[in-house]
Amino acid sequence: MKPTLFVLAAGMGSRYGGLKQLDGLGPNGETIMDYSIYDAVNAGFGKLVFVIRQSFEEDFREKIVKKYEKQIHVELVFQELDALPEGFSVPEGRVKPWGTNHAVMMGKNVIHEPFAVINADDFYGRESFKVLANYLNMLGNSENKYCMVGYRVGNTLSESGTVARGVCETDESGNLTGVVERTQVKRIDGIVKYKDENDDWIAIDDNTPVSMNMWGFTPDYFKHSDDYFVHFLKGNTENIKAEYFIPLLVNELIVNGNSSVKVLDTPSKWFGVTYADDRPEVVAKLQKLVDDGIYPSPLW
Fold first, then answer.
1. What letter does residue 20 receive in the DSSP assignment?
2. Which residue intervals of 160-220 are DSSP H helices?
3. 3-state secondary structure at position 4
4. For residue range 82-126, what is the model confidence (pLDDT) as tens digits?
5. Cα separation, 148 vs 211, whole angstroms
6. Is this structure's pTM higher than 0.90?
7. Biggest alpha carbon–alpha carbon distance for the chain
8. Nearest CA-CA partner of 81 in 59, 56, 53
9. Whether the Cβ atoms of residue 230 and residue 215 lie closer than 8 Å to each other
10. Phi first, then psi: what are they for 297, rounded to 5°?
11. Distance from C-alpha of 209 to C-alpha of 4, rounded to nearest angstrom
12. Domains delineated in the chain
């Protein structure tokens, strides 16, 4: 059974001001997501699931799904504010989505095999999809053995400013022991540093693994997600901006000894448009990948 690629795209409509402006960055107007799906198909993923807002389903089917249907089986699921467990309702004033792990929960009725989770607007690189597909193929029907692709922090920085990164801590077996969110990371005088709680810049090795929200799970993860979401909602009834993030649940499962998460190394360079100034750099990087023969042009 081939693994599934689950793409988090529910923020797309709002962030990009509608899908009409979904940014074409490749030489023939390809989006970053086009490259991810091309890499995933070639790595052996067998199904594509998008989580989106229902309000732009029609637009999404017309502009996005049509592109991929000939390459791979495609499903859509929807993340809405009122998708809550019995007994809970949307707090007054809540407009912010419930976060990435809530988005993942929306896939439980269509995903019954090992699956990867990625952001729609990040470039992950073909080696990362191969590494992830290989690991997911080994999992079969096992439970509580998950993985994440750990990018070398030096391969994930922006030249336009600081970035936020989840810095990973691992044990001697390469399993994740924790993710510490560092909100300001950049290269200073050739050395990667993050700003700590005391406003001091702390140096870290270029090869330190960081999370770029590229995860691998088996379907039992949905049950953990449902269970912990109730706990999350009870603890955040007054906080209308609280979000149920993937690392929040992953950390909980690791600390409680329920699950293990293997950190998979990748030589791929991550990139994305964190700042408007990043756009020309991303366009140039994609053009170079095409010039070097890594990708065809046009892609499909």
1. G
2. none
3. strand
4. 999 999 999 888 888 899 999 999 999 999 999 999 999 899 999
5. 7
6. yes
7. 56
8. 53
9. no
10. -140, 120
11. 24
12. 4-150+211-291 (3.90.550.10)
